[in-house]
Amino acid sequence: MVYITSLCTSKRHQPITSFWILVIILLLSACGGSSVEVTKTPAPAPQDNTPVTYSGPVAATPDVTQFKLELWDNISSPQRCGACHVQDNQSPEFARNDDINLAYNAASQLVNFSTPEDSTLVTKVAAGHNCWLSSDAACGEILATWIGNWGATENTANDIQLEAPIAKDPGANKNFPDNSLLFEDNVYPLLQTYCANCHTGSATIPISPYFASSDIDESYAVSKARISLDTPENSRFVERIRDEFHNCWSDCASNANDLINGIQDMADAIELTELDEQLINSKALTLFDGTLASGGGRFENNVIAKWEFKTGSGTTAFDTSGVEPAIDLTLNGDASWIGGWGIQLSNGKAQGSTTNSKKLHNLITATGEFSIEAWVVPANVSQEGPARIISYSGGANTRNFTLGQTLYNYDFLLRTDKTNVNGQPALSTADAAEVLQASLQHVVVNYDSVNGRQIFVNGRFTGDTDPTEVGNFADWNDTYAFVLGNEVSGDIPWAGSIRMVAIHNRTLSAEQVAQNFDVGIGQKFFLLFEVSEITETPQSYIVIEVSQFDSYSYLFSEPFFYTLDDSISIPDIPLQGMRIGINGREANVGQVFQNINTLLTQSDYVPAKGQLLSSLGTIIPIEKGATSDEFFLTFEVLAEQTNVMVEADPPAPAATIDLAAQAEIGIRNFAEINASMSAVTRVPMDNSSVKASFEQLKQQLPSFTNMDSFLASNQMAVTQLAIKYCDQLVETTNLRDSYFSDFNFNQSAETAFTAQGRNAVLLPLTSNILNSDLSDQPNNTDVINELDNLVTRLTDCSGDKVCDATYTKTVVKAVCAAALGSAVITLQ
User: Fold this and answer.
1) What is the DSSP string of 585-642?
2) Amino acid 117: pLDDT
3) What distance in Å separates the CA atoms of residue 611 and residue 604, rounded to the nearest whole number?
4) CB-based contacts of 655: which residues, under 8 Å, 6+ apart?
5) What pTM, to 2 d.p., does this model score?
6) pLDDT tens for residues 302-327?
7) Longest distance between any two alpha carbons in the chain, whole Å
8) 513 touches 378 (CB < 8 A)
9) What sign has the CA pseudo-torsion 775, 777, 782, 783?
10) Rounded distance, CA 260 to CA 241, Å?
């Protein structure tokens, strides 16, 4: 048997309640053709957050005590289960307050510690029974967490056992055509006429998805997952009108029939896709025919807040950690849900209340250490600011902590008594390492009093050490708000997707970080594609881990051969050229497993694990939606069967296009400018004053080497950094005396800058800063003359101007900065 391990832990927390929002929601009517979509709104702050006081008999066993702390304390209030399921009122009496042992006996019949999400308590609430939030699913997740905490001990594990699915052959399918003509003729007119007030990007209040967009291709792309070609009456568009009465434009039943007829007319014009008889194919499965592998193996002993974004709709992302008060986040601006659990942000944010965010302050300052863990997908590597990914802050310049992005770097800003109120200086990943990429990444930032700040990316420590002395959180502000994707002030947005965020009030060890990375993210399934008839090996399967990667694709990864019959001996079985099929035909992209060429053997088969076929993964586009897409596998060779595949000729390459002429010269980027200034002034880059200025200016310095990208703001940053380098050169005695060995800094500006004195300043500068023996470079004499004119203007000491020895240093710094901040340094 195959097992996936899930660590469970114990946490203590206090209950939070709300109820009346559900009553208000029931009174609301659909918005007709208005620009507001009727959805459940976030629950208000609870009216009563006080747990029930228990004064009955003491707990008979430690497990009863655990039950009280982890479950009963959270559900016994009248706002949850304590209004009904108590003594002499309603059975089962699992919330009774007269005898905790009797409550324990009743609750024990309603829970499943192996899979808490299958507990009767959970399924009942998740189906809508007395949920205290605006999302039944979120209530179910929180209840499952509490039950898991009750049944868990340190390092106990949940085992996920692979189960044989119902065997079925790939069927004939109707597939969406490549072009949108049928959709445009039959379904799109209804959507554009009656849904365009909301579901377009140009609406007054745009509501995703934009299936009523004026761009027909955009509308077609997002509508496919909401249309069932095989059973039009089961289409999501139809269910939304017929069953949920959402924005009916006249009579809901009649309007639903109009949609059914439009979809049916579209489907009738599409020919069935029959499976090619020559294919060597496995049995077929949909995503939900697989065995659920929900986060097995995650280390969460000290999680105090967690967002998995499973709700998938509405404006609230729920904190399902089970530690209260829950920091539920409200989505604002350009923030939308993505399939497979997650949110996508561009110029929006997901923000919690300051009241509930105080939980972070209280629980982190109590331990003096914490970890931020997230799965993120940066939209690009050109974001600056740093752009705010995760923040607990009060505005653009005040924070307790922030995880941000600057270009290819992750930035960790943390307020302690050793940093400023903005959490600076930040700890950033090395520029040259470019660890941040525009792909799905697991990021963990740690802080404790021994190691200071640390950053882990994809399970590995980046090696960047915290240069700042460790401190404490005495200066943390408990009135700040927790926010994702932006600053609380809304002016420093981050673009990308967030798939999960967890806050731990203890640091994760390197082993625990790697463990959580290996577990992965999202709603994952093990799909068991049966090949028993071909291999003549009983209960044999090719197993692939599959998840919905985003709203547009599935992720298939790490296939392995496996048999559910432990008693058999596996003969030698050749396997070559495995491909993924979807809806009756092989997918035309993502066939990374077609190069597999291996032999399935008893010697390579590992009991309880099977035989790994590939460590790779691939992306397959969503066609009909996660509930409808049917998958199967095909093979060029499997056992005694062979089907030689002939790859089609690749299309002719497109005609080349001549690009606009590029400049022969370029601009040094921020790292190169910093290194160049250090080299020509001899001031080390790790000079504390220079380093602090560079960290502040880095995002304003040039990011690209293309001449066309150079802006006035870049030049301002170059000038400021040049001034700082020159200041340290002149103010550091040993550097100054070595660099300007023949200049007297003790004289006033009126007497120091004689012809000899000027040469003592200008010649060292030009000889160090200017290149030599280049075919195209500034003339040395011209540069000296220009700098000499600058000295003349600066040393005009007429009037009330003070030209003492201090001013002499100022003049040298100014002349140095003029040369250092010029094109001599910035151009390459």
Assistant:
1) EE-SS--GGGG-EEEE-TTT-BTTTBEE--S-EEEEE-SS-TTT-EEEEEESEETTEE
2) 86
3) 6
4) none
5) 0.58
6) 899 999 998 888 899 999 998 889 99
7) 104
8) no
9) negative
10) 11
Instruction: Give the number of other CB atoms < 10 A from CB of residue 649.
Output: 6
pLDDT band at residue 661, thresholds of 50, 70 and 90?
Answer: confident
- Residues contacting 690, CB < 8 A, separation 6+: 678, 683, 684, 721, 724, 725, 728
Average pLDDT taken over every residue of the chain: 86
Cβ–Cβ < 8 Å for 414, 393: no
How far the first Cα of the chain sits from its last, in Å, is 62
Distance CA 389, CA 404 (A): 5
Which pLDDT score, from 0 to 100, does residue 11 have? 38
- Distance from the Cα of residue 570 to its chain's centroid: 42
Phi and psi, residue 441, nearest 5°? -135, 145
Q: Are 377 and 441 in contact (CB under 8 A)?
A: yes
Of 208, 511, 431, residue with least CA distance to 335: 208
> What is the model's pLDDT at position 243?
86
725's CB contacts (< 8 A; 6+ apart) are 677, 678, 681, 683, 690, 816, 817, 820
Coil/strand/helix, residue 576: strand
Q: What is the pLDDT of residues 686-701, one digit of tens each?
A: 899 999 999 888 888 8
Amino acid in the structure at residue 239: E
CB atoms within 10 A of CB 145: 26
Class (C level, CATH) for 298-518 = mainly beta
pLDDT tens sequence across 134-191: 888 889 989 988 998 887 654 343 456 788 998 888 987 788 898 999 999 999 999 9
CA distance 261 to 241: 14
